[in-house]
Recover the amino acids of this structure.
């Protein structure tokens, strides 16, 4: 075949050439940038944290705006997820931002199932993307990607340790999403306690095998800042919707009788570090990791479940048609097996019912015979009684007749005597 006759050049034969003048492909990165800018970006944040822990306030503080905010009730039966999408613009860059809130998280008495709606939500977004990819006429270009790029996990500032709900939830999520743990309302914990709390949290995460997102250190430009920030996790943050006058500037802060906690003051909290890492340095890496690690894992498991598999380079090429046929045969076999099982079950059930009915019929027959015997017995008794009564009646009549004759005779005798006397 012609295709096998074509010789491929070994990589050693590749040569570097110098160009005689400007050709223009050095504009490729710019082309990519302008194309991306024209297309716009999307970023999806999942906020997992107890009701009232400060999720909405932090989102408002992070994006320096006021998103829709509905306070959650503490009395919900279960956890549900509430996604809200906003179109934001900064300079000429459009960002479609989706914030997903976990409503009712941590409020139930039994918290065993609290992680499930979150896992389901993440999987559903992966599934939608996979379905779009598998379509014949797919439109990934203008598809609204709802896959979660980052999960901000809000830890309560207890100063003790992580709650089992936190550990279970993070463990269930860590293979599906980039988790950045943060200590919420960090103004409520003292500096020395916070330091110990951070160490405790990290050691608990490690001992429980929870994989949190690590800021990438393979790109030289950001390796230094990212590796120093990795050591400062989990960030202790403060959110605020108030502005306070500090010096002659209005800044976001929380005002207390003893002073103000400034959100953007790095000696007060790690808010600036979080914003830097999440939005300004690693947003693209979070998007990329979601696609190349988490989605890839979901896709692989899903396709393997559907019967697809890769073959090694030496064996026959992978054929979709064959996989489909094999899966179809397997499915039909299973269906037949199930049908046979159901038929057998039906036959057994009919037999059982038949036997039960026969048993009942026998019982009824026996009862009928018994009643018949009882009836005959009673009839005999009644007959005997009737005969006795008849006999009694006859003897009574005989005695009555005799008495009457006797009476008649004695009457006749007495009248004859009186005639004689007279
Ligand atoms: N001390 C302190 N209070 C905060 C902080 N952030 C938010 N709060 C307060 O906590 C309360 C709840 O804040 P929200 O942002 O509504 O909390 P939430 O997690 O969005 O609440 P739900 O959406 O109802 O679950 C508000 O009174 C906020 O002012 C913080 O960093 N420190
Ligand atoms: Mg809220």
């Amino acid at each position: 075949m012609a295709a096998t006759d074509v010789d491929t050049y070994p990589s050693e034969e590749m040569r570097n050439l110098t160009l005689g003048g400007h050709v223009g492909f050095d504009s490729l990165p710019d082309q990519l940038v302008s194309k991306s800018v024209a297309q716009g970006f999307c970023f999806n944040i999942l906020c997992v944290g107890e009701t009232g822990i400060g999720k909405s306030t932090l989102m408002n503080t992070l994006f320096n705006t006021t998103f829709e905010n509905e306070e959650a009730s503490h009395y919900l039966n279960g956890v549900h997820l509430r996604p809200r999408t906003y179109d934001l613009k900064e300079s000429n860059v459009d960002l479609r931002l989706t914030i997903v809130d976990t409503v009712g998280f941590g409020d139930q008495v039994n918290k065993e199932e609290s992680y499930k709606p979150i896992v389901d939500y993440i999987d559903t977004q992966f599934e939608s993307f996979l379905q779009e990819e598998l379509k014949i006429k797919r439109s990934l270009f203008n598809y609204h990607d709802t896959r979660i790029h980052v999960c901000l996990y809000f830890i309560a500032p207890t100063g003790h340790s992580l709650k089992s709900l936190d550990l279970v939830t993070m463990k269930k999520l860590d293979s599906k999403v980039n988790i950045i743990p943060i200590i919420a309302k960090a103004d409520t914990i003292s500096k020395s306690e916070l330091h110990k709390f951070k160490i405790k949290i990290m050691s608990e995460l490690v001992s429980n095998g929870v994989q949190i997102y690590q800021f990438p250190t393979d790109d030289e430009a950001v390796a230094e800042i990212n590796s120093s920030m990795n050591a400062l996790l989990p960030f202790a943050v403060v959110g605020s919707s108030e502005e306070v006058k500090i010096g002659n500037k209005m800044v976001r802060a929380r005002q207390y009788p003893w002073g103000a906690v400034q959100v953007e003051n790095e000696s007060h909290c790690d808010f600036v570090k979080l914003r830097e890492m999440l939005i300004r340095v690693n947003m693209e890496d979070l998007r990329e990791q979601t696609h190349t690690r988490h989605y890839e894992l979901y896709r692989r498991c899903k396709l393997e479940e559907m019967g697809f598999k890769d073959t090694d380079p030496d064996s026959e090429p992978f054929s979709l048609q064959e996989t489909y046929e094999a899966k179809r045969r397997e499915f039909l076999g299973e269906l037949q097996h199930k049908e046979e099982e159901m038929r057998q079950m039906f036959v057994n059930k009919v037999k059982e019912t038949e036997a039960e009915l026969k048993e009942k019929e026998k019982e009824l027959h026996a009862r009928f015979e018994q009643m018949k015997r009882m009836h005959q017995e009673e009839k005999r008794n009644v007959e005997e009684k009737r005969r006795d009564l008849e006999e009694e009646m006859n003897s009574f009549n005989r005695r009555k007749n005799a008495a009457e004759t006797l009476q008649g005779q004695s009457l006749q005798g007495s009248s004859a005597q009186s005639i004689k006397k007279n």
